[in-house]
Write a structure and sequence with these properties.
Layout lengths: L1 H14 L8 H12 L4 H7 L10 E4 L9 H18 L7 E6 L5 H14 L3 E5 L5 H10 L4 E5 L8 E8 L9 H11 L14 E4 L1 H12 L5 H6 L5 E4 L5 H12 L4 E3 L25 H10 L3 E5 L6 E6 L5 E4 L1 H18 L7 E6 L5 H8 L3 E5 L3 H11 L4 E7 L3 E3 L9 H17 L4 H12 L1 E10 L2 H17 L4 E2 L2 E8 L4 E4 L4 E3 L9 E5 L4 E6 L5 E10 L7 H19 L2
Helix pairs in contact: 1-3, 4-5, 4-7, 8-10, 10-15, 12-13, 12-16
């Protein structure tokens, strides 16, 4: 009965897309869904409207209210334009930046968005071609714009596209603007969308911004001398068909690296991502071609950026000379360890410097910060929250770096989103610094483990697609809340945090408030043996994520294998007890 009611609702919604307001191609696609006896595609395309999550608007491309198409993009842009005209009423000229990645339809969606903004009297700085996400964030600040958008689905599979909305500080939109924009978007009908642009209000930008941005990125180099000594560091880089190819090789060259090798087959711009299953540098498969090249030329490091060049994945040789992937937690740890250690060594560290990590990122970073007396802040998942901490302290404290377990890092404050351009350059510098001491990056990681304790992190993604999947994920979260685990992996839970209620409960049942800017659907459990489990539904993909971190001891470099094996056993025990 419930399913019949749902089919009735989505059918009524879909039939509205058969009016002349929609183009013939869209109408044909909707007709096919309506005529198909299997209503799965119809339900998935119309059961909800795309909503802003941790990464903005994101969905599979196609016809429907729950799909990325010119009408959902058009409604989002019209709603944002309406909100900007309300918010900045009386301003001589409201302006925005519009950027896009390499994906299918990205240029089309960007140009349509530029037309809609301009039709609403808003000046548009439109990039001439695909550009990295961080450069879009930079350009908003550079031109003094009130907002900006980037058409990208980051590292999602090829059938996806997305829409990231930014505010005047160059960060992704936060409360109260995020919900207020959604309210405006929800009021928009297809007849309200002003598709006919005003070309006089659209300015094409490109190399002029590239140069300023790359100069700023170069300014964050901590030790240029070490690069001069190690300028022949052998680097393999791949953009996985994406925007990184525009700027990352240039950035590496500007920093002084003279031996950079790119993967030719992946230096081809393509929204089909023909050489990978998924263009995600978190996946080993996406780096396989780069690692093959690295083995062939005996490289020092492999780096890969995702399609919109905000995330960086990397691989290096371990102590046995085998190529291994370094996960996002380890990468973030290496960045912050290097920044802190070398700023102190070079006398650059100031009393008001601070770093930021997300609540699901390794606690080893806190150990490094505490031992070196550096302030560390914890925030929610999503770089908009790191950007918020920077904004709150602007003019009072100096941000020196921050990151998250999902391969995002930001080393500078002139960008307010994760930045693979600066991260790749800085990663190369860290590798040069290690080599200067006769070490590999892996050995630097072992140094950290010996000094600060061993930690192993694993993310388990439970994928549940479609409407039925969304219901299952909701039920799983409700079950954890109503039946919280008392023990995980054989160790007693001594602290449970619920960011939806903003309450933390210790092992004795004592409840305290959590100091966070708003609620979030995240649960965390800390056990007696130092294990940390975080559970949250993804804001951009149909999955529930379990972040597992287990602790151990590592007395020497040669103890890594034993510490890692013990940690793997502990991770398995955790997974078993949680049923994941």
């Amino acid at each position: 009965m419930e399913n019949e009611e749902l089919i009735k609702q989505v059918t009524a919604k879909a039939e509205m897309w058969l009016t002349p307001a929609y183009d013939a191609e869209t109408q044909e696609e909707v007709k096919q869904m309506l005529n198909n006896p299997d209503k799965t595609a119809l339900i998935d395309s119309f059961y909800q409207d795309l909503a802003f999550g941790t990464g903005g608007l994101r969905g599979i491309m196609g016809a429907g209210t729950n799909r990325m198409n010119i009408y959902t993009v058009g409604a989002a842009t019209q709603g944002l334009a309406n909100y900007l005209n309300k918010c900045f009423k009386g301003k001589d000229q409201i302006s925005v930046v519009v950027g896009h990645d390499c994906r299918n339809n990205s240029r089309k969606f960007a140009e349509i968005s530029a037309d809609i903004f301009s039709a609403n009297g808003i000046k548009v700085y439109l990039f001439d071609d695909m550009r990295p996400t961080p450069e879009v964030s930079f350009a908003i600040r550079h031109f003094g714009c009130q907002s900006g958008i980037n058409i990208t689905a980051s590292h999602n599979p090829r059938e996806y596209n997305g829409y990231k909305a930014y505010w005047d500080d160059g960060a992704q939109v936060l409360a109260p603007h995020d919900t207020a924009i959604i309210d405006e978007v929800n009021k928009v009908t297809v007849a309200d969308i002003k598709f006919k642009g005003n070309k006089d209000l659209i300015q094409i930008i490109g190399e002029d911004v590239d140069k300023v941005y790359l100069d700023k990125v170069h300014s964050i180099s901590i030790d240029p001398e070490v690069i001069k000594r190690q300028k022949d560091l052998k680097i393999v880089y791949t953009p996985i068909h994406g925007t990184g190819m525009i700027l990352i090789p240039r950035a590496l060259k500007q920093w002084g690296f003279e031996n950079v090798h790119t993967v030719p087959e992946q230096m081809v711009k393509s929204g089909d991502f023909p050489t990978v299953v998924s263009p995600n540098p978190e996946n080993a498969e996406a780096l396989s071609m780069a690692i093959a090249l690295a083995k062939n030329i005996d490289a020092d490091i492999v780096m890969a950026s995702d399609p919109d060049a905000d995330r960086v994945g990397m691989a290096c040789k371990n102590d046995k000379g085998e190529w291994v992937l370094i996960n996002g937690n380890q990468t973030c740890l290496l960045f912050l360890y290097y920044i802190i250690k070398n700023r102190i060594a070079m006398g650059k560290m100031k009393d008001n410097d601070f770093i930021v990590k997300t609540i699901v990122t390794t606690e080893l970073i806190k150990a490094v910060a505490d031992k070196n007396k550096i302030e560390m802040l914890d925030c929610y998942t999503g770089f908009k929250w790191i950007a918020r901490e920077i904004r709150l302290r602007e003019g009072k404290q100096q941000y020196i770096g921050g990151g998250e377990e999902s391969y995002g890092f930001l080393a500078e404050d002139f960008v307010r989103d994760k930045d693979a351009v600066s991260a790749c350059a800085l990663l190369a510098e860290i590798c040069a610094w290690a080599k200067d001491q006769g070490k590999t990056l892996f050995e630097v990681l072992l140094d950290i483990y010996v000094e600060y304790g061993f930690s192993k992190e694993t993310t388990v993604n439970v994928v549940k697609p479609g409407k039925s999947g969304a219901d299952e994920i909701k039920a799983m979260m409700e079950n954890f809340r109503s039946n919280p685990p008392k023990e995980i992996g054989g160790s007693k839970v001594v602290l449970a945090k619920d960011y939806k209620t903003l309450k933390a409960t210790d092992g004795e049942g004592k409840v305290v408030d959590l100091d966070m800017p708003e609620t979030s659907n995240v649960l965390q459990y800390f056990t007696e043996d130092g294990t940390k489990i975080s559970v949250r539904p993804s804001g951009t993909e149909p999955k529930i994520k379990f972040y597992v971190e287990v602790k151990g001891e590592m007395g020497c470099h040669k103890c890594f294998d034993a510490a890692n094996a013990a940690a793997e056993e502990k991770v398995e025990a955790v997974r078993k007890s949680l049923g994941i």
